[in-house]
């Protein structure tokens, strides 16, 4: 929860907004007194196990397939350092700052539950990194989505030890030791079990899931707007979106999408121009227009399911072994990422299908056999000008890529650790490709908005609905009205920014009020 601009972290679940505030907006964090008390109590039990002659996994043994070796007390500090250093084996491009900050916050929350046996000082150091805006360098590859996001989390743990590299608040790359010194943060000497407690969680894939749900929630509403603009500019009908028709098939997301489209199209002069049956001989619109609420609605319901899974995970404490309330320290399999991996894959299907339908609507604008009186390719002088011909190629290329990204990662288990970890979730990989899918969907919807706005202008003197006209005005602040061919790539990027930053929704909602 927020407390004077600071996200407080305790045993209670974090909210989606907490994750967004810390990951994207750089909010500072503070551990609650309840968290410190819970960690202190659990740590006492871990210290007792560390002093016992009976081996305890993660406390006085090796890890994974090496868990059969009992580690002498004199070597246990080295054991923790070795665990973190060896597991910080990521490779490839750097992961985005927002993902790493989300991962750090979510690991901090699990520590704060008191079920990991971490010392409060170690958790406070992790909180201090977040508050100081220091982001460990984490790499694309290294997590199998089981036994936690091991390599990504190990790079964070390495920073707590004063090793590795970080990005500061301005994005500058620094050695961790130097950055911690400048921020007046003391490196941590890890004690028994702490290395394992820092790296054994689903925090990376969960963080990316929360960010994806936030983005898709906005993009699905934007898809309702872009579909409405296309229906309007293609002289379609809004009668199929009537609530009494949606009620015949009571999917909640479908009803919300249809209601949004009705509100966006209200007051359209273009729609009014062809309501007379004598003047309009078409019986039904194409599926990409008529069935838009069914597809966007199914996407909504899928995102709602994913949000329920993420909410349960946000309420969890993922570590192995776990310290229970009665003092027992028990091995478990809660680190397996299957629940998250499945919905991450499911959301990539949603992104691909929404984009596929959007591209089909765009394509209809460009074909004189289907665009009902608009010029070929919406060109100023067809033949001399190509209009939006290649913008649709760009959409098609992205949609094809999204279909490849929709192939599930979660079915592709591969064994590791000498067959001790013989089934893994690949949830991290599912999350990474979903981020690319969301970027692609954003671009496809932006090109539909750009094309539909051009078509609405070409319908003059007929007037669009006040809400769709507001989108056209917002776009025209950076993209000129239709005319001879111009350098199109910057105009597409301007539309992408308008969609990604919520400008399309903001323009509509100033007219309609908040959409569903």
Description of the molecule:
- 55% of the residues lie in helices and 6% in strands.
- It has 516 residues and is mainly alpha-helical.
- It has 2 domains: 2-201, Orthogonal Bundle (Fumarase C, Chain B, domain 1); 208-512, Up-down Bundle (Fumarase C, Chain A, domain 2).
- Strands 1-2-3 form a 3-stranded mixed β-sheet. Strands 5-7-8 form a 3-stranded antiparallel β-sheet. A two-stranded antiparallel ribbon has the order 4-6.
- Helix 1 links the parallel strand 2 and strand 3 (28-31).
- The longest helix has 32 residues, at 427-458.
- It is elongated, with a radius of gyration of 27 Å.
- It catalyses: L-histidine = trans-urocanate + NH4(+).
- Its EC number is 4.3.1.3.
The low-confidence runs, each spanning 5 or more residues with pLDDT under 50, are: none
What separation lies between the terminal Cα atoms?
25 Å
The CATH class assignment of the largest domain is Mainly Alpha
Tally of domains: 2
What percentage of amino acids are in beta strands? Answer: 5-15%
Question: How are the strands of the largest sheet arranged?
Answer: 1-2-3
Strand runs, count: 10
CATH topology of the largest domain: Fumarase C, Chain A, domain 2
Q: Count of helical segments? A: 20
CATH architecture of the largest domain: Up-down Bundle
Radius of gyration: 27 Å
> What string, H for helix and E for strand, traces the elements in order?
EEHEHHEHHEEHEEHHHHHHHHEEHHHHHH
- CATH homologous superfamily classification of the largest domain: Fumarase/aspartase (Central domain)
- Major sheet: 3 strands, mixed
């Amino acid at each position: 929860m927020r407390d004077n601009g600071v996200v407080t972290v305790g045993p209670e679940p974090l909210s989606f907004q907490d994750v967004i505030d810390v990951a994207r907006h750089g909010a500072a964090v503070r551990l609650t007194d309840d968290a410190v008390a819970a960690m202190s109590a659990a740590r006492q039990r871990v210290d007792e196990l560390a002093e016992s002659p009976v081996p305890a996994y993660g406390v006085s043994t090796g890890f994974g397939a090496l868990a059969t070796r009992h580690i002498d007390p004199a070597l246990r500090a080295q054991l923790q350092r070795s665990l973190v250093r060896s597991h910080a084996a990521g490779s490839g491009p750097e992961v985005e700052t927002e993902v790493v900050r989300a991962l750090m916050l979510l690991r901090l929350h699990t520590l704060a539950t008191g079920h990991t046996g971490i010392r409060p000082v170690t958790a406070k150091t992790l909180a201090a990194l977040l508050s100081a805006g220091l982001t460990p360098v984490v790499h694309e590859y290294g997590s199998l989505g089981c036994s936690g996001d091991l390599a990504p989390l190990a790079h964070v743990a390495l920073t707590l030890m004063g090793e590795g590299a970080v990005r500061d608040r301005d994005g500058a790359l620094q050695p961790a030791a130097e950055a911690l010194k400048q921020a007046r943060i003391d490196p941590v000497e890890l004690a028994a079990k702490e290395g394992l407690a820092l790296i054994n969680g689903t925090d990376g894939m969960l963080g990316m899931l929360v960010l994806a749900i936030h983005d898709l929630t906005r993009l699905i509403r934007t898809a309702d707007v872009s579909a409405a603009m296309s229906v309007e500019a293609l002289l379609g009908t809004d009668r199929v979106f009537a609530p009494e028709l949606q009620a015949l098939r009571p999917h909640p997301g479908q009803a919300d999408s249809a209601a949004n489209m009705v509100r966006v199209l209200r007051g359209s002069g273009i729609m009014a121009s062809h309501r007379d049956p004598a003047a309009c001989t078409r019986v039904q619109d194409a599926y990409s227009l008529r069935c838009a609420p069914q597809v966007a609605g199914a996407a909504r319901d899928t995102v709602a399911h994913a949000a329920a899974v993420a909410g349960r995970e946000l309420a969890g404490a993922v570590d192995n072994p776990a310290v229970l309330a009665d003092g027992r320290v028990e091995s478990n399999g809660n680190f397996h990422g299957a629940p998250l991996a499945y919905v991450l894959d499911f959301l990539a299907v949603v992104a691909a299908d929404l984009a596929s339908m959007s591209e089909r609507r765009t394509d209809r604008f460009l074909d004189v056999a289907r665009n009902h009186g608009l010029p070929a390719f919406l060109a100023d002088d067809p033949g001399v000008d190509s209009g939006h011909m290649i913008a649709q190629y760009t959409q098609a290329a992205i949609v094809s890529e999204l279909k490849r990204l929709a192939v599930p990662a979660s079915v592709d288990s591969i064994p590791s650790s000498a067959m001790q970890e013989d089934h893994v979730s690949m949830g991290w990989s599912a999350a990474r490709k979903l981020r690319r899918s969301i970027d692609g969907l954003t671009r496809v919807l932006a090109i539909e908005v750009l094309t539909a706005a051009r078509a609405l202008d070409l319908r003059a003197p007929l007037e669009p609905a006040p809400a769709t006209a507001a989108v056209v005005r917002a776009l025209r602040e950076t993209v000129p009205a239709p005319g001879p061919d111009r350098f199109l790539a910057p105009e597409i990027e301007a539309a992408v920014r308008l969609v990604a930053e919520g400008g399309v929704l903001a323009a509509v909602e100033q007219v309609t009020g908040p959409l569903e």
